[in-house]
Structures are given as C-alpha cells and as structure tokens.
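Re: [help] complex structure
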Amino acid sequence: MTEMQKLYLLVPLAPLAGALIAGLFGRLIGPAWSHRATIALMLVCVAASVTVFMDVLKGNVYNGTVYTWMTSGDTRFEVGFLIDQLTATMMVVVSFVSLMVHIYTIGYMHGDPGYQRFFSYISLFTFSMLMLVMSNNFLQLFFGWEAVGLVSYLLIGFWYTRPTAIYANLKAFLVNRVGDFGFLLGIGLVLTYFGTLDYAAVFAQAPQAAAQTIEIIPGSRWELLSPICILLFVGAMGKSAQFPLHVWLPDSMEGPTPISALIHAATMVTAGIFMVARMSPLFELSEAALSVILVIGGITTLFMALVAVVQNDIKRVVAYSTLSQLGYMTVALGASAYSAGIFHLMTHAFFKAVLFLGAGSVIIAMHHEQDMRKMGGLKKYMPVTYWTMFIAALASAGVPGFSGFFSKDAIIEAVHFATLPGAGFAYFCAVTTVFVTAFYTFRLLFMTFHGKPRMDHHTEEHLHESPWVVTLPLVILATASIGAGWLIEPMLFGGYFGNAIHILPQHEAIAKMAAEFHGIGGMMAHAFTTLPFWFSAGGIFAAWYLYMVRTNLPARIRQAAGPLYTILDRKYFIDELYSWLFAGGALAVGRGLWKYGDVIVIDGFFVNGSARVVAATAMLMRRFQSGYIYHYAFTMIVGVFVLMSVWLFV
Amino acid sequence: MNFLQPDFAPAYPEIFLLLMVCVVLLADLAWGEEKPHLAYLLSQFALLGCVLITFATSAPGVVYTFSGMFVDDALADILKMMVYVTVSVVLVYSRTYISTRGMLNGEFFSLALFATLGMMVMISASHFLTLYLGLELLSLSLYAMVALRRDSVGATEAAIKFFVLGALASGFLLYGMSMIYGATGSLNIARVTEVIQTGAMSHTVLVVGVVFIVAGISFKLSAAPFHMWAPDVYEGASTAVVLFIGSAPKLAAFGFIMRLLAEGLGSMVADWQGMLIILAVMSMLIGNIAAIAQTNIKRMLAYSTISHMGFVLLGVLSGDGNGYSSSMFYVVVYVLMTLGTFGMIMLLSRAGFEADKLEDFKGLNRRNPWYAFIMLLLMFSMAGIPPTVGIYAKLSVLQAVLNAGYIWLAVVAVLLSLIGVFYYLRIVKLMYFDEPETDALILPQGDVKLLLSANGLAVLAFGFFPQALMAWCAYAIRHSSI
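Output below.
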C-alpha cells in the first residue's frame, strides 16, 4: 500500500474512530474528552482530505480496490476508492463543514444529556458520507447512502422523548425508503445489464448500453439507460429532497440545529446531486432522464422558495430555502452543467451552514424560541451572528461578489443554453426564484435582527452573543461563503474536473459559457445588465419595504391573498395528501390483508393447518414407538422388505 | 508350515490400546478402591498414546497388512484421530456425572476403551470378517455400558432392547455378507470390488446381499426404519453412556459405510442409491417430526440424531468423492454438536437429578448466561442457522444431492429440516424467555468449563471458517483406498 493509499484510508477511518470512541467509551471518558477526541480526529480527517485534494490538483487520480468483501459467481463486491477531482472537492467540503459543526456543537449541545452520543453520531455521519463520496462502486455507494440515511434518522430523533421528533424521523425514514427503493432498482438494473458494480467498468460499457432497449411494459420498448437513470435519480430525489419526495426535509428540523446545518443542508442532502454528477457518463446518454431532472428541479426550486416566504419559524425558512437551492443544483444537473451543480453545492454548503448555525445561535440566545414574530432587533445584542448571517444572506440572494452569485448565475446561464425539453420551464423557475430567494432571505434577516424587539422582557434581558465555539465556525464559514465564489474560473471553465465529469458535445452548455466568460470582474460587471441581478435587488428591496417600512402591509396582503396564502401556508397540502393516500391507503390495504389474507388464509390454513398436521403426525409416530421389542423387530423386518421391494419392483 | 510374519506397524495403535485396556483393568483391580481416578487418568493416557502412535505411524498412501485384512490409509488415520478426541472429550464430560452415580470405576473405562478398539478395527477393516469383528467388539461393549446401571429398571430394559435388536441387525449384516461371499467367492473387500466389476456372478444374489448389509448398517446409524432402539436406549441409559453411543460410534459407522458400500460395493451405486434415498427421507421425516412430540430432551435428541443420520445418508447416496467428503464433514459436525449438547445436559445434572426434561432448561439464561449462550450456539448449529457450522454441513450434503441430480430430494430435505428448527429453537426459547424453576448453582470442574466453552465456540468458529475442516475431510476421502 502506498503512502497515498494509506492517506485515503485515513480520511474516512479517522471519523469512524472518533465515533467509536465517543459512542462506546463516551460515558467513561466524559463529555470534554469525547469532544476533544472527535474533534482531534476530525482535524486529522480535514488535514488528510486537504492533502489528498492537493495531490489530486497535481493530477494524481486513483481508482482501486481496498478490500474484496465477497465474490458471488463473476460478480465481485468490493470496497474501493475512486479519488478524482469530484471526490476530492466533496471530501474537503464534507470534512471541513463537519469539523466546523463539531466545534459549534460544543456550544450548542452544552449540558445536553446525550452530548457524547451526539458527537458519536456526527462523526459516524462524517465517516458514512466520506465512504459514499469516495466509493468506486455502486455497492459501497449504496452502503454510504443508507448509512447517512440511518444517522440522519437517529439525529432527527435525537431528542427521542419529543413526539414531534419521533414523527419527523419516521417520516424522513419512510420517504427516503421510497427514494432508496428506486435507487436500489436502478442499481439492480445496472448489475443485470452491465454485470458489474464497478463505476469504471459500467461507464466504459455505457456507450454500447445506450443502443440497447428493454421492454418494461409489454409493447413499448425503452432505451435501457432511461429507466436506469430515472430510477437512480429517484434515489437522488429522496436523499436530496426533490419534489415530490421533499416532505421529510422541513420536518427534519426537529433535530438539533448543528444537524440541520451539517446533514440537512450542507452535506447529506447533496449526496443525490453528487451521485448524479458522478454518474454523468450514464445520465448524459439519456435525454429523457435529463429532461425529468430539469422539470423536477425547476418545480422544487420555485415552489419550495414560495413556501419559505410564508414561514415564521426561523429554521423552517432556512429549510425551505435549502429545498429551493437543492432544486437549483438539480436544474444544473439536468442542463448537463454538472460542474456548476457541484460548484453551487460547495458554495451553498458554506452559506447555508452559516444561515443554519446562525439561526442556531439566535435560538440559543432566545432560549429555544424559533418563531421570528417574537424576535427583532437582535443585531445590537449579537453582532457576530448578525454580520455573518448578513454575509450568508447576501450570498444566498446572489448579490455580485458573494459566492452564491457566481454559482447561481452560472446555473441560470447554463439552463439558458440548454435545449432539452423542459429547459424553458426550468429557466423560468430558476430566474423567478432569484427574486423569491432574495425576498425570504432578507425577510428572515429583517424580522430577526432589525426593527423593534418583540420578545418578552425576561428574554430580552438575557440576550447576549453566543460563546466563541459558536461564533468561530460562523466567522470561518462566512469567510468561505465570500471566498468560495471566486473559484468559479478554475472550477467551471478551467477544466478542473478533468475526466471526473463527462459531457456529450451536444450538451456543452458550460463550454458555450466559457466562450463568453471574461474573468470574474467581467462577470460581475455584466451582472448589472441581467435579469437575475435586478430580481435579486428587487427581492431585497421588497423585503425591506414590507418588513421595515410598511410593517402593517404583510398582514393585509395575507388577507387579500386568502386561499393562495392558505395553500402556501399548508405547503400545497402535500402532507395531507400523502397522509390520506399512502398512510390511509396502506392502512386500508393492510387491514384487508390482515383480516382476510393473514387471519384466514395464512394463519388459519397454512400456519396453524400445517402445525396441526405435523403435531398429529408426531403423535401418530409416538404411538408406533410402543416399547415392545417385537414391534421394533417387526418394523426392522418390514424395513428390509421395503428395501428389497425397491429393487424388485422399480 | 511356514508362518509369514505380518507387518504389525499399521496396527500399532490397536495393539497399544489393547495393552492399555488390560493395564486399566489390572490397575483398577489393584488400586481401584483407594484411587478411583486412576482408571480415568490411565484411559486418557491411553487415548493420548493412541493419538501419538497414529500420528507417528501415519504414512502416505494405502498400506495393507495381515494378509489384506487390515488397511491403513488417510481415511483410517483421520477418522481414528477423531474417535480418540471424541472419546477423550466424552470421558472429560462424563467424569463428574459418573462419579456422583457411583460408576467411576474400571468397568466403565475399560468398556469404553474396548468399544474404541472396536471402532478402530471397523475403521481400518479391509475384509468382511475384520469389519464384523470390530462391529461386534463395539456393539458388545455398548450393550454392557448401557446395562452398567444394574439397579435401574430403565437402563436394564434399554440394554435388553438394544441387545436383542442389535443381534437381529448383526444377523442381517452377516446374512448380507454371506450372500456377497456366495456371489463373489471372496470376503476381501478389494477382491469383492474386482469380482463385481467383472460382472460374472448372479446380480440377484448380490442385491439381496446389499439389502441386508444396508439394513445392518442402518441399525448402527439409527436410520429409520431401523431406528426404533435409539429413543428407548437414549432415554433409559445414563447420559454419559448415551453421549458415548451417540458420538464416536457414528464416526466408526461412517468408516464402515465407506469401506463396505463406497469401496466394496461402489460399483453397485445404482442399486443401493435408491435404498439410501428411502432411508434418508424416512429418517429425516420421522426424526424431525417425532422430535416435536417429546418432552424428554434425551429422547428428543435421539430423534434429532435420526434426522441427522438421514442427512449423512444424503451425502453418501450421491456416490462420489465429493458426496463422501461432505457426508464425513456432516458426521464430524454432528459429533461436535452432540458432544456439546450432552455435555451441557450433564453439566446441569446433579446427584439424583438428571436434567433430562425440557423444563430443566427453563430460564438457563438467568442462571448462567454463558452456558445458555453456548447451548444457543449448539442449538442454532443443530438447526442449521448461520453463522454456526451446522448450516455448512447441511449445505454441503445438499450440494452433493444436487450434483447427483436429485433436486426434489434436496427440497424435501430442506423442508423437513425446517420442521426440525422448531424443536431446537424451543430449547432456546425455554432458556431465554421462561422463568427458571430452580436456582441451583452450576459449578462445573475447570476442565469441563473450558472444554464445553471451547466446544460451543468451535461450532461458531467452524461456521466462520468451515474450509479447513472441509479440506481435511476431502483429503481423507481422496487419499483412502476408495
């Protein structure tokens, strides 16, 4: 094993060791040593990730097997690493944000009875996520996929005595099951038609596979790759909370805020985006799948952003904002601008982490009050939180110079160039959402930090800035939220991703953009002539006007909008629909199967019936065992007779 | 008359053991009163000596001696080694049990060693007469061991049944052998094989002979419908003796089958395959189903043995090397599990208390979680639940059956063993989910404690690494006279 290979192993294993230490020996070593151990190991992980990243920048790409788990026929099930530019980027983002969240957690979870357990979980999450992104085969990808899902489940229900938390984690688990089912079917199709689970081997065969068709519904033949890609994308829809599988993410805010930042904003939910980018050699060959992605992404972008406008819970606003931003990334994937999607993933990881962690900081100060209507004027009490969140809000709204501007603008431009069916719709959604995003982000900022304080006197007296363990990650991440955008030139147009991402010539939106790209300065200057910029500015202005100047106006608009407001407030009634259709339907079907299928047929006939037959036979045999020697001897002689007759008559 | 000195070397272990039995008898006579443990220690020493001698005299290839009546090959060496180890473990497990029941004397040990000698002769026989000699030496010792508890009505009854039915089975066997002799004109196994291949004899006579031989062997294996003695003997005899009967002799019986059916009558596979299918199916059916209705754990294990022997026959009936080695693997695994299970019964029994009812296992987990866990492993393995070794044993014989082309038979075997899972898991349920009826302490001797734990863990370890044992069995079959 070379030095680099050892380093690759170190990256995921360090957090795993941390998870084991805090999980198994947490009670023994106490809270302080638990966070020291996990953070020290996270530091190792970050250092190793950065070293790997530097190595990859030099052009050293690795693809190899670490361990063969089992061999079944010709199929090998392996643990392996594929380290290229895409992986390295993800490794750095994941480990870095995770480290920040580890540090932040010291302040946020201080005194919680489950302190060590929490550290164990987040380290375990980091391990799982790294295994997911570093994988070189579908099996390990699926393992990581499920493992992050499991940790997410555990963390949403971290405060397991709250019924709402248990409801939320169950919901997340069930909705993800739907996505994972599609994902597993997709992997199954890959295994069936490609005969291997190894990325490189699958991608090598992809062009031949594109010519193949399969008959899923008798009578209509489909291109083989379309169902594969769409099923894989269903998996991504579950994990990355795309419409209509998005319903779990807002509820996941029941978990502690660091988790919302780490798992439900910065990393895990982007696993779907990463996966599609990783599978670009497959997705490129299926235009049907790309169209589906464009439309789903478009719907999620716009409609989830609209819901964010009417939320009053500070975390829920950020949560719906996350959904909308994930929609942007998905749109980028659909437009074959994978690098733009990953770029937005990275910038979003930073500014969304700030928004969440900042919201968490506010929540600590407000003694776990999350309703923005009871906040206001916090700026003077919490300057660090305010300024970092302000930077993140600018980034989120896409103001030139901040990271969100570069990545979001790149996506909008890419969609503009896309020609696939659904691209027009996606472009419309993407541009419109810029306005909505700016509006809700600044609405949050104004309602929380500006204006007159609306909290009760007791809370106001105790308001103060959070401790350094909370603000330090905020400052670092806010810096990253500004800086990350300036990497646009190398990441998008500099051929940074190399062979990690594969784009067909007819889908080269990014290449067309590269032709028009004249440096960062040019991009910012050009922005002032484009629609998104003015939408963004308009959104900020509207938020300022409605929530700072004419503060009685929102209530009147709400009155006037009537049913429209209700639809948004109830999130398009999707939860109610699912409850009625799936939960109710499943209950009805289950009751039917239970009463008729299970009780009568299975229990009555098969189970109890066969048990009765066996028991009766057993009693009969007992009777033969009479205890008399002559009975026994007679049986033996009959036995000889039977054996003899086999030969005589057969 | 010139007398040719035969080569004694291949039979050194047998000769040594015979001498040692005499030593045990004499020593017990002289010092038995003062030193009751002397016979035990001497017996263990004898077995250890046998291990060393067998190891030292093992030579590659097949060696015949005593005018071709005795053979020494890899199969013989490996099976004998297993017999020594098994008997030795049986003696360790039984020591406390028989000492609290006043049987710790030369009789038990000398009979056990005589039986061992009989098994060794069976395993190394290459002549019908040696086979029969070994078998009778084993059987007579076993009859006497069952009857060792003279004051127990159950034991006496069991011994009489065992003896009478055993005599009948011996009659079958001898009659079958005489038929073979009539048809081929020889009692030498190698010679019989040659003659059968020439085909110059009455096929009818041969097949009648095979039927009687198979019936005789089935009795030894306790395969249905020649199994009726087993439940009664298991229940009536003392647990130590049952452990002895249920373990090592099965290894010898396997050797017997290999010498007689696989080697001697190997070219008649087509004739005995059908018979073995009937025996196997009946054994698995009767064994698994009748076990459900039992309340006595020894009786239940008797039926369990019957069904396991059905599985052993499944491996044999495929009639090729792979089948034989998978069958051997099954026997070895069976012996391993039987040792542990009966060891556990003896562990739980005390003076005046037999622990042979199913209820006696209730709440074992509360009384002693470690032994409950060991018993759980053993029961899982008996039932064939991964990751214990039992699943591999079943898997390998089923593989052999499939290779022989009997898919339906494999399906039947799986279904019947599925029924069997019930009564094994019932013990697990009793141990873990029921309240204990007694809180008597379990205080085993140090060596029993260690050995029993190792025994249970071995079931798990071989479940993770079955290859080594499997390779050993395959080696034994490949380098034998078959």
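Residues 3-550 of chain A form one domain.
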